[in-house]
Amino acid sequence: MPHRTRPMTALLVFTGLNVILVSSITPVYDFVSFHPYWERRREHRQQEGEAALTKASA
Question: In the chain, where are the structural domains located?
Fold first, then answer.
């Protein structure tokens, strides 16, 4: 007896999974983007740039 496919069930599961993934991406993106590590890294790179400028002009 062949296996019966259920396209409507598959479509609903696929759509539901995508809705869950799309709704959960914003908090994950915000957590990763605004993590304190990036702020420290940005400040460190800015200080390095300023040090290089003062070294080059002196």
Answer: 33-58
